[in-house]
Amino acid sequence: MANILTKSLAQVHPKLRTNGIGIGNNHRKISLGFLQPSKRNPLVRKYKRRRRYGTDQQSFRSLGEDFGSTIAREDPMIDAIDEELDAAGSEDGGELSRTVSLPSRVSETPDVHSEVDWILEEHERRYSSAQHSDEEFQNEEEDTQPRRSSLNYDEEQQEVLEYDDFMKRVRQQLLFDVNRRQHRPSFISVTSRGSVPNVYESLESEEECKHGTVTLKSEAKVLASYSIPLILTFLLEQIFPLVCSLTVGHLGKNELAAVSLASMTTNITLAVFEGISTSLDTLCPQAFGSGNYRGVGIHLQRCIAFSMVVYVPFAFFWFFSEFFLGLVIKEKELVSLTAKFLRIAILGAPAYIMFENLKRFLQAQGIFDAGIYVLLVCAPLNVLTSYTLVWNSKIGIGYAGAPIAMVLNFWLMLALLLAYIVYVDGSRCWGGFNKKAFTHWKALSELAIPGIVMLEAEDLSYEILTLFSSYFGTSYLAAQSAISTTVTLTYMIPFAVGISSSTRIANFVGAKRADCAKIASQLGISCSLFVGLFNCILLISCRNFIAHIYSNDPEVVKLITELMPLAGVAEIFDSLNAIAGSCLRGQGMQAIGGVINLVVYYLLAIPLAIVLGWTFDMKLFGLWIGIGTGMFLIGTIEGYLVLFPNWEKILRRAEMRREAEEADELDSEDDYSSTDSDEEPDEETRLLRN
């Protein structure tokens, strides 16, 4: 039927044919050439640029010209459609065109679908016509074969764009525009200077994940560029509790003991929310890698909302901590000072929670240096503020100044990071506040709870070792505290490398590139060995210097120097543990990691440490041999799971998660449309939604 209509209209006098501009009517005309049906989808095939045939033939690129605007940028996807339309037009005579009417009030803000549905409908119609009849297709193939040969048809088919991918990106951009809720924008913003259809704009990072060539060398460069700023960020964060202890420590031993107890309580509590935020290591990079940028912002909002609800009982515990701590600690003055610190710290915890989530939000977009800029400002100010509020003769308030300085520092960190997102980089994935943040918390908890277990299992193991070491004597407790603090500091290096690896893995999983995700996983595990060896050499070679930093007592110094080599060897396994666990989060397999950490630490490592420490009288050496054995087993098991996973299952889970998100977006659009207008959606709008 299409051939008959084409041949009939080709006989029309050229003066009667439209050039795409309506005269004497109330509508604008957009010209589209007839497309030759093809078994391999003729709508979005990418051709090499060649000379156009025909002088009056209009293309999709004339959309901007018909509106009196200019297209400032070009996009390969626009070129693909443009060349296809030109090719089809030239093959059917070069003069024939089909006009489609658009509303004449282009300067107004019409319905979001009104100026794009005609394109989608035309594509759907032509794509379906390609499959209409095998016989018709064969006849047309015979008719057009001589012309295809003359145009080097085989050479022009080297690159093919997927039709479904094009349609998906159109719909995703429409949904993004709808939910900004500032206004209902049209497909192209028509101004006197013109603009680019933002539906075709692609981010460089997405193209890199989806189509970039990934090798072990190139991935190593990316991992290094991600890890270095992240390592500095985590190291700077560790300065804050150290500054708090140093400024209060000179007030007295009760104040120092209270700050230590309060710091231990806050660290254990805030580790819960760091564990919840690790769910974003899976969700945000996968959404970003798949091109669902608005979904990255929704995941951020959902995680913050979930964390704030979870924080309520912890805030209750902190406020009434004097009662709860009094049940296990008999020294009333110590309990009173600790409770005073925790009550003030309640005000700063929400800022810290949001800061940690925003860091993951930026990391998913490949922005790792924002934390450095923020902490380079906040770290010196924290030292100054702590000293001023504790020791200044005019405005210093003593012990209470330390938690107040911490609270002010947390809120300053949050404010600066928000300013970075708004004014520098990172806002492209923010689609505005959305009520979907208060849904699907069960699915979020399935990722958050294993993340909490993975972090808390190791943090609590160190605290348990410190508690057990107190039974061996004061010198053993001091030595264990010094080694634990040092090991925690060096642990930030593999932890930062692990987060960088998990981000890359999740990006590739979201982009459905299992081969690249495999390369990133292998590189992450390889880096864990180098990082572990670096930490081991650092601790062993600097053991005397480290010992004298913490104490001048000969017995304590001797214990630290003797125990540090064993702790250094354990750090090799701990580095493997940290990076392998992060890679599991990038693959969306943190549930397995949580079970492994929980079982190995509390059913094997800690019992073994207690047996070696007390039964065999090995004391601190027995404790570290037991915990080191647990690190070795966890790192080995998780490393194997990272290197040999079921990639098909991982991709399928990521796809199911993405489809659920898209379904939510469509539901959100339907809800918004129904509340925004009482009119019945037209046929083209229903076609787009289906």
Automatic annotation (TrEMBL):
Parts of the chain that traverse the membrane: 308-329, 341-358, 370-390, 397-423, 477-499, 520-546, 591-615, 621-643
Stretches assigned to coiled coil: none
UniProtKB keywords: Membrane, Transmembrane, Transmembrane helix
GO cellular component: membrane
Protein localization: Membrane
Superkingdom assignment: Eukaryota
GO MF annotations, alphabetized: antiporter activity; xenobiotic transmembrane transporter activity
Compositionally biased region (Acidic residues): 661-683
Membrane topology field: Multi-pass membrane protein
Keyword rRNA processing: no
Any Pfam family the entry gives: MatE
Compositional bias (Polar residues): 98-107
Gene Ontology process terms (BP): xenobiotic detoxification by transmembrane export across the plasma membrane
Annotated region described as Disordered, given as residue ranges: 87-112, 129-152, 660-690
Family label: Belongs to the multi antimicrobial extrusion (MATE) (TC 2.A.66.1) family.
Protein name (database record): LANO_0B04984g1_1
